[in-house]
Amino acid sequence: MFEAAIVLLYGLVxxxxxxxxxxxGWANHxxxxxxxxxxxxxxxxxxxxxxxxxxHSCVARLLTRLSRSTA
Length: 71
Known about the structure:
Blueprint (H helix, E strand, L loop, with lengths): L1 H26 L6 H37 L1
Helix pairs in contact: 1-2
């Protein structure tokens, strides 16, 4: 259940970023350029960095608790 919620949240963030990128291209009358396609790909990848930071924070907090409990 938790994994499904995380995947859904990731998908919503990625779709929102892609929508903003597509609307920006539509407003500028640019269409699909190479830079726009690269931006769409980046929209799919950038939430992974947020996930990495969250996981790093959780692991660091866990390791801090473990090191304090053994001392």
